[in-house]
Amino acid sequence: MREVISSSLSDSEGKPEFDQDLVDAMRWFDLSDHDRALTSELGDIADDVGERIIEAFYTHLLADETASRHFRDDAHIAQVKKGQMRYFRELINADLDSSYIADRRRIGSIHERTGVTPTLYIGAYAFYLNKLANVVLDRMEDDPAKAFSMVLSLFKIAHFDMALALETYADTREEAIKARERELSELPTPVLQLRPGLLLIPVVGTLDSYRARALTIQLLEGIQEHRARAVVLDITGVAAVDSAVANHLIQTMAAARLMGAQPVLTGLSAEVAQSLVKVGVTAEALSTAGDLQRGIELAEHLLGE
Amino acid sequence: MTVTVPILRQGSALIASIQEDLCDSDILNLQSRILEDVIRYRANAVIVDVSAIGILDSFGTKTLIEIAHSVKLRGAKMIIVGIQPDVAISMVLLGLTLKDIPTALDLDHGLALIGET
Fold this sequence. Notes:
The structure holds 2 protein chains of 2 kinds.
Chain A: H1 2-10, H2 16-28, H3 33-40, H4 43-63, H5 65-68, H6 74-93, H7 98-114, H8 118-139, H9 144-185, E1 192-195, E2 198-204, H10 209-226, E3 230-237, H11 243-258, E4 262-266, H12 270-278, E5 287-289, H13 292-303
Parallel strand pairs in A: 2-3, 3-4, 4-5
Antiparallel strand pairs in A: 1-2
Helix pairs in contact in A: 1-2, 1-9, 3-9, 4-6, 4-8, 7-9, 8-9, 10-11, 11-12
Chain B: E1 7-10, E2 13-17, H1 24-40, E3 45-49, H2 58-73, E4 77-81, H3 85-93, E5 103-104, H4 107-116
Parallel strand pairs in B: 2-3, 3-4, 4-5
Antiparallel strand pairs in B: 1-2
Helix pairs in contact in B: 1-2
């Protein structure tokens, strides 16, 4: 279901498959034209008492310390109130189409950006619905059964609404996490020339397979560019590597040797050493040194200096 | 089309510079010529330059290793120079790490390497 909603969100407007997703999502919420027709009848009541409810709604909001922090001044509050009126009018009689969804999604992302938490959002929504439901029941004393089904239909749409907003929350967060991950993985690893023929590559941070691949290419191209005959790969700043990355490190060192550079691996933490042993690497197969200083000394020795 | 790799003499070293991708029979041809020339010219080192090669498959690598070992048995040593980064990566992925064969970045480094010993 989650996929249906988020895909209906992520597709751009007007695509044919978009409407199918919308239909699926509405079926899941058991939303029909009948519901829409019922809530539309609430239009007059909502217009009549809308402002009063919104006043009460904001009194409630501003009484809460966390919620009130989201409002700068009275002008801001007035502006938001006007938007709120429109929002609730749409809740009652707007067509549930792609532009409605796009609009709800936009509002969700504004909320996310300004730091309105889901608790704050749903709590406020519930407050409003409760007020409105009470008014509807009051006004329609003569036909409580119909009033009840109207309120139920309204609740369906409200839940659909909340689902849209929360999906947007999740999407925005996920987007942020992905961006952060990308940033981290693109963190460049410098290839430093210590002296002619000797390269130093300090690796800091997490080493995932994406970054390990990038490292291999940088190292091999660095060897060619600097005409290096020895390379010290220092992984002191790497806390742990999984076995795939450990394997990759070993392959990188072997490739460096094929290009005529003596590779030296330094700064292995206990965990990294263990993962290397697990993938079947022994110290014989590669030159290692406990710390960077001894690594550089070893590399110089290999260079014959 | 057969490709005959020229084998040049530089001091007491032989230099075989492979200029294009070789087929299996070309490599075998190179193998027999190197082994003959090592004795004929009393060479003490052989440098095989592969810098123009875009790919070294397992047969080519296996033959190179064979050449290296046979050259050693004939009293000289062999080094391979000029393996390109992407060639190096694909060789390693195939498990071809040329364990006992010295390598160098290019011909220049290769000559320096045999000059030292």
